[in-house]
């Protein structure tokens, strides 16, 4: 399965990435240890942010590496359209900042993805100053 | 397996639901994107909050949906009484606010639930101004 | 598999344990309900903190028990050296404060640990005023 995570800086389907906790007195950023972000990314069928929406990727990003090299990812992919409408997948792992190929775990799912487990690869598919798109390639078994 | 999550506003076994993080300058609530709650719910054998305690459901609820339609759930069911005493189950997923049938994943467990995976259904079993009770129906396989 | 988590108060490979959220107006500690810590522990091959580094244990510790008896653990073991370099394991569960034998779940993994699930036992292997070392014994199946 291939989907696209849209990190949109602005617009009607803008992604929200909100810093909500961190070390007191520091700037909260992805490279500042201790920072926690709540995120809600649109997930689409194709690389264009205008392509059909299949769901949202919602959860936490946590700057848990002292050297800032990676962030912890804990996201639910909440499908709310098309063939997987009502189902979810749970993603968990580490995203390394300076690598294009980033693999996280699919720890479980619900609905059509009950008993799912596997892995998901995140790769930068598009990037400019206003937005970025990550290709999300998911491999699961459900037995 | 069927248990009951007791969300009790007061009393000796009161549930604790504490807002601990969120977007600076906003009210932190279940429908305000970015709010994080730490929770500790009593889990009982029957629908009555006075029925036998089997454990506690402890962890995080995260308002990670921009539209406020759902919250992320990351809970450990910590059994501390009766047949599963000392074991745990790990729940993860999305709870949709306006649906009575809410399915989350059982991602794993410990003790008697080693290698467990499956799903858990949350349904409102009782609700009034002072408290609510959720029926928790758990389906797992452990091989 | 046996590894060692080094909780080091000082030195070049010092562990970082940062309180980042909690109930407003309270001291944020492991026994104060609601406190969230982001952590980054070195993981070594042997009990000595000077032994070969195999990776880092990065993620969250959450004081989610009202009675302070346990904390929620959500950690990624990020291997960055030797035979599992580039792979990760996802740990999740409850660590009981007053027990020497603490079992958490291995919910998943990446790289060489794709499809992994199992359990991990944490035991205090060394403890003095300046540092502590936890033995981490991991049992997984990957099919």
Brief account:
The first copy, chain A, has 143 residues and is mainly beta. Chain A contains no helices and nine strands.
Question: Which tags fit this structure?
Answer:
homotrimer; 143 residues; mainly beta; 8-stranded antiparallel beta barrel; 9 strands; 0% helix; globular
The major pleated sheet of chain A works out as: 8 strands, antiparallel, barrel
Question: Reading side by side through the largest sheet of chain A, how are the strands ordered?
Answer: 1-3-4-5-6-7-8-9
What percentage of residues of chain A falls in helices of 4 or more residues?
under 10%
Q: H/E element string of chain A? A: EEEEEEEEE
Instruction: Report the span from N to C terminus of chain A.
Output: 17 Å
Derived from helix and strand composition plus strand pairing, the structural class of chain A reads: mainly beta
Radius of gyration of chain A: 15 Å
Number of strands of chain A: 9
Query: Biggest chain pair contact, residues each?
Result: A-B, 25 and 29 residues
Strand content of the residues of chain A, in percent?
over 45%
Low-confidence stretches of chain A: none
Assembly of the depicted chains: homotrimer
Mean of residue pLDDT values of chain A? 94
Shape, per Cα inertia axes of chain A:
globular
The number of distinct helices of chain A, counting runs of at least 4 residues, comes to: 0
